[in-house]
């Protein structure tokens, strides 16, 4: 999903107008502070379908803050707009393997954890990670694997592994997230390599294998792949685990597969861009979302991996026990974290571009 920094920022020349437009549309002219010392507006930039509108309204009513909320559909889009839109966004979300590069480039600023006391609600296994020791720059929001599911009512072949996706009878039957790191990582794992592989020869091998898979893919969709699943347009999905869980609410026959190759995982985190005009208010918003009741409400609508241990007892057991979201302990031993791979991302860029251009 990540692109090389210079290349992405170069691409953002095209996005400048969009970023400026977003800034103009999201900013208001209201000034001053609320009774509790917060600014009267906050500009939030988040993934689409990732935060219920009711939660935003709740914060607005509780604190007297107008939240100007806009969305993106990829880390690339987020990075491009934050790169050229200094001062436009007060809060955004970035995947864990983005945190160190963004910090090194001066794109995000340190947090004041004194303003985020609900940080204490986060489970130990999700904080103080290698990508941000001490959570100086980031607070985990929600995590996900890209999970594998299929509708056994509509296809005759059984699916037990990632390798089964190449079966010829699955032509135009698969939806996948539009994410180069997860998808190329999956292909690398079917070849017996790490999903974070950086060897050019192995990535070329992965490219050739991915090209062989393309006839089976109906769509790449990171926004709402469950729609294709529920509508019956596809019968196999390699998508965010939460999307499988949401599809199962309407099509319970969709089965989740725990592939023998293992899956990959990443976490999305709140970060405050450099130049944010309403930093304290952004921290108050993070703190609000970490309230157990609020965090549980978010998970009910968007059931990704929730790192808030205080919220877990309030989340439906159906969600907490769904293996599309929360993998069994034995499976977690096989899970590989998506890592920052430095300049090697240029290889992924090239491979992904060549694969996508073959469509």
TrEMBL record:
Positions annotated to bind spermidine: 49, 97
GO MF entries: polyamine binding
GO-annotated biological processes: polyamine transport
Signal sequence range: 1-22
GO cellular component, one term: periplasmic space
Chief place of localization: periplasm
Tree of life domain: Bacteria
Subcellular location: Periplasm
Gene3D superfamilies linked to this entry: Periplasmic binding protein-like II
Keywords: Periplasm, Signal, Transport
Statement: the UniProt record of this protein carries the keyword Transport: yes
Name of this chain's protein: Spermidine/putrescine ABC transporter substrate-binding protein
């Amino acid at each position: 999903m990540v692109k090389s920094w210079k290349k992405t920022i170069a691409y953002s020349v095209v996005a400048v107008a969009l970023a400026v437009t977003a800034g103009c549309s999201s900013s208001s002219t209201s000034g001053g502070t609320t009774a509790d010392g917060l600014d009267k507006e906050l500009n939030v930039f988040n993934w689409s379908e990732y935060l219920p509108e009711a939660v935003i309204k709740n914060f607005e009513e509780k604190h007297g803050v107008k939240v100007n909320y806009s969305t993106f559909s990829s880390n690339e889009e987020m990075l491009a707009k934050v790169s050229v839109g200094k001062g436009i966004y007060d809060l955004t979300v970035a995947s864990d393997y983005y945190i160190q590069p963004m910090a090194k480039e001066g794109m995000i600023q340190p947090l004041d954890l004194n303003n985020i006391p609900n940080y204490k609600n986060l489970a130990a296994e999700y904080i103080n990670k290698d990508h941000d020791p001490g959570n100086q720059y980031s607070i985990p929001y929600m995590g996900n694997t890209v999970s594998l599911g299929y509708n056994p009512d509509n296809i005759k072949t059984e699916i037990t592994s990632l390798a089964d996706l190449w079966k010829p009878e699955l032509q135009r039957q698969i939806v996948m997230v539009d994410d180069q790191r997860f998808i190329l990582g999956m292909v690398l794992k079917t070849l017996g390599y790490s999903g974070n592989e950086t060897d050019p020869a192995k990535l070329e091998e992965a490219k050739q294998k991915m090209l062989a898979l393309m006839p089976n893919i109906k769509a790449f969709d990171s926004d709402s792949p469950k729609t294709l699943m529920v509508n019956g347009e596809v019968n196999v999905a390699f998508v965010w685990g939460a999307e499988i869980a949401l599809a199962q609410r309407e099509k319970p026959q969709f089965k989740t597969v725990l592939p023998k190759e293992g899956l990959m995982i990443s976490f999305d985190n709140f970060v405050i861009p450099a130049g944010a005009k309403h930093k304290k208010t952004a921290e108050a918003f993070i703190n609000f979302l970490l309230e157990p009741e609020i965090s549980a409400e978010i998970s009910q609508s968007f059931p990704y991996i929730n790192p808030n241990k205080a919220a877990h007892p309030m989340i439906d057991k159906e969600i907490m026990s769904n293996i599309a979201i929360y993998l069994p302990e034995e499976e977690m031993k096989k899970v590989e974290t998506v890592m920052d791979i430095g300049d090697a991302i240029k290889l992924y860029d090239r491979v992904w571009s060549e694969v996508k251009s073959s469509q």
